[in-house]
Amino acid sequence: MASTSVTRSRDVKLQGVPASPGVAVGRVLRLDERGRHQFYYIGVSAAQARMEVRRLREAVQEARAQLKEIRVRLAEELGYEHSFILDAHLLMLEDARLIEELEHDIRSRRVNAEWAVRSVTDRAIQAYKQINDPYLRERTSDLEDVMTRLLTILSGRDQFDLSKLDQDVIIVAQNIWPSTVAELDFKHVLGFATNTGGLTSHSAIIARSLGIPAVVGLHDITRLAKTGNSIIIDGSEGLVILRPTKSVVGEYRAKRRREARRRPRPAEETSKAAETTDGVRITLRANIELATEIESLRLFGAEGVGLYRSEFLFLTRLPDLPGEDEQYEVYRNLAVVTGDAGANIRIFDLGGDKLTLEGFEAEQNPALGLRAIRLSLKAEHVFRTQIRAILRANLHGHLRVVLPLISTITELREAKRIIADVKQDMAEARIEHNAELPIGVMIEVPAAALMADVFAREADFLSVGTNDLIQYILAVDRANENVAHLYQPLHPAILRTIAYLVRVAETQRVSLELCGEMAADPLQAIAVVGLGIRTLSLVPGSIPLVKNAIRSVELERARSLMKDAMKLTTTKEVEELLASELPRQAPRFFAAWSSKP
Amino acid sequence: MQQRTVTISNRLGLHARAAARLVRRASQFSSSVTLLREDTAESADGKSILSVLLLAAARGTSLIIKTEGDDEDRALTELVELVEQKFGEEFSDGVY
Strands A169-173 and A23-34: what pairing? Predict the structure, then answer.
């Protein structure tokens, strides 16, 4: 492929981490981030441009009012001597040339107000940087300050809606934050390319779940790519080509067509059962996080939802919490759509790398901090509200609750006590609900894995969350590209842990599910099935693929293969064994698949 | 049109505070106000702080102040005075 593409200055090639397979050819939409604010470039119509000018003018008025107030306060506290700088700030906002330039930018380039402010500021700062005088050069910080105020006012209210993209784009960003994902309109997103992130970072998971090609870990793509540039991303190779020439575009369009043909069509697979050749039935459930994904369950043939990441309800609206009724509506829909197959709702997994609740501060080491069940037990009112909404919605289907990041049995007992208490309150208040609500434990902390026999006695079911479990067992931050190679799902320590959990579940007759990225990788999925897992929960988009893999293997052979694998001592040996044996055992699927180790 | 040449003589030159005062004063008149550096021939809109700051006129810079409009005489007199009085820096603050 590379040899046929002519290297010209236009074809800027960047190598990153292949995060989600597939080829996308399109135009860049760069998401800009400064501090906590993200300023998007949005192309607007002429009519919208007029509205953007009005928004800008209102924001300028508001910024001036704020500055005047601050100037008065500062003058009172420190004397006029020190308030002069605010006068300079005010004058910047009164600077007719600047305002004209901003409005001109909006009208002529048809962009949103935020983007105009950002680009005009950047141009002005460039001009100041040419100045020899160090004191005057420093005025750029005043300008930044004023513009940041303006941007904050602008995006604080009525921010241009990312959910209303009207053309297909490829998102280029520092990182894809969960909150951004929750906002984006995925009908128009062809792919992702990000600076940071490893194979199992959130951006990558999201991309795979949506079946969108993605390349992550590109370091400085946000600097090199500009909104509107043409771009190709090859998610299978981890390659990005900026401003490609025509011939390269043609080449990749052809590759995209070839790949589309090779991927199994969902419709063909959904009608068949996920059964091994020797007749063992495997249940494939879906991991979902967006309300819109509920609709994809049928398309991909998911047997209910093994993991509904409920915190995504939050992420677009923090610090506000979704109320009980709002949650109820979502859970009820989930209950209705999944019907008898049911759905596991994971209690809010906030904190950590995800956003946290108001009143709780950012922590030094969030992965080991106040998050998930720890946060729920501390912010008990939030937990209670969620449980009430679930109990009400449970009237319409078969919901179950999963508690995330449990590390000690007392947390399970405390959560069960609160849930019992909520049920009693509801019964007394005669609020209709279905109290038959199984409570499961996520096994994702090594302590919980080692104590699984204890949890099996008191929980209604166990769910292995492999993403976090692997991270904690191997002490690897999966989003840190410096150590991402040490994140090894087939590490013997992981295999032993899963084998142990299977044994516990069998002897104690408690149901065991496995959710996480492992379940979505055909080779790893067969590995855990060989270890004895019978229920997998994975991104809906990967269900047809994994089902295909399962239908190609004989369970007895997979089991003995894993017996051999358990004797090995390194990840590499395990991978090599599987990569050499599976194509022989199940050539229909794995002969074509084994090109990648 | 009226014009006079002045020399920036305050210690810090046409920095933020001085520029702010000059722009404030210039904005009080309906006439247009243009500042022109004699040495580099760069010009600035006297009513735009960003433009004035970009002149980077340090102490000793010769500036031509041009005013044009109904109140051009008064505008020129007052602006020249402001520069010659070193933007009131050596006097007490809080004048406007």
Answer: parallel
